[in-house]
Write a structure and sequence with these properties.
single chain, 14-stranded mixed beta sheet, 313 residues, 2 helices, mainly beta, binds calcium ion, two-stranded antiparallel ribbon
Length: 313
């Protein structure tokens, strides 16, 4: 993949001309329209993208320390609710391997713990911010009102992370009119959708050169990495995000959250190899909720994660 004019080409064919001029005073209307358009688009295809069909998850506080070593052997991880098994991103049909996520938190961190069944754990990419989707990976998205964060990780513990800002929020008075989110001279991607789907809100700037401050991450392989002659059980990933790094997505919510605060979060997995170990023609995408399109970047389909101040029951 070559970089031109500071922008990376995307793995998908981008469609031009879909951006709308932004205006902060019309933001609420814009958001409602975007949501309504997304729902209409989904309805016209019979897709369950509306909120009533999305998962709700309760994230509890930890009762003890979480050691970021990739192993989910802390009692809090053992007791924490697990998501439903990820399903096909387009159809909602069951995936051929089991993948689940749990989310915990404490005063300093937001924690993710992934469990991925996998009989042949493999990965090749080792450079930070390389194209992790070319390996089998686990992914997460955390959405705010006008921006969202994306992370991908492979079984070598290599991370790709990007902070995406919707272009329509760049206007006078916007909190994103600051040097940190000025795309000029930055290594960015511009995306209006993935896999032929175009989001009604239009384009967003992806700051690939932004790295989540203070992120801790580790993986554990339950089996042998890149050894095809045996049968593995899978791999787990464990991540800790300092709350401070989520300030751009808080939209006035407290960090750490107050009891009952709700955030929109997604988790997913992309899988290049079938149950027979052979390369599949089209990389499978499995998500917490069905998206209806082969597009991870649809915040309206993200799970409702409610934060509880209770310890894990
Ligand atoms: Ca651990
Ligand atoms: Ca990055």
């Amino acid at each position: 993949m070559t970089a031109t004019s500071g922008e990376l080409e995307l793995r998908v064919k981008l469609r031009a001309g879909n951006a709308r001029p932004g205006c902060c005073t019309l933001l609420a209307i814009t958001m409602l329209a975007a949501t309504a358009n997304a729902q209409r688009a989904a309805t016209s295809k019979g897709e369950p993208a509306h909120a009533a069909n999305l998962a709700h998850y309760t994230s509890y506080r930890t009762s003890g320390p979480i050691v970021i070593d990739g192993k989910l052997d802390e009692s809090d991880w053992q007791k924490a609710p697990r998501s439903q098994a990820f399903v096909d991103i387009v159809t909602g049909q069951p995936a051929w391997f089991d993948s689940r996520v749990s989310i915990l938190w404490d005063e300093k961190y937001l924690y993710f713990g992934f469990r991925a069944q996998e009989p042949d754990v493999q990965a090749k990419l080792t450079a930070h911010d390389s194209q992790i989707w070319e390996d089998n990976d686990l992914e997460l998205f955390i959405a705010g009102r006008d921006a969202y964060y994306e992370l991908e990780i492979n079984a070598l513990n290599t991370v790709y992370d990007v902070f995406w800002v919707w272009q329509d929020i760049y206007c006078p008075g916007s909190p994103y009119n600051v040097p940190e989110w000025n795309p000029k001279g930055r290594k960015i991607m511009v995306l209006d959708g993935v896999g032929g789907h175009v989001h009604p809100r239009g384009k967003r700037n992806g700051f690939i050169d932004w790295d989540f401050p203070g992120l801790l991450h580790a993986v554990h392989v339950d089996g042998t990495l890149n050894h095809h002659g045996d049968t593995d059980r899978g791999w787990t990933a464990e991540l800790a995000f300092p709350w401070e790094g989520l300030k751009w997505l808080a939209d006035g919510r407290a960090l750490p959250p107050k009891d009952g605060d709700v955030w929109r979060i997604d988790s997913s997995r992309f899988q290049h190899f079938g149950p027979d170990g052979k390369l599949v023609e089209n990389c499978a995408g499995w998500t917490w909720n069905r998206h209806g399109y082969y597009d991870s970047h649809i915040p309206e389909t993200f799970t409702f994660v409610r934060f509880s101040r209770q310890s894990v029951p």
